[in-house]
Amino acid sequence: MNKTDLINNISEKNGLSKKDVELVLNGFLGEITEALSKGDKVQLIGFGTFETRKRSGRTGRNPQTGTVIDIPESNVPAFKAGGKLKEAVN
Question: By residue range, what is the domain housing residue 45?
Answer without folding.
Answer: 3-89
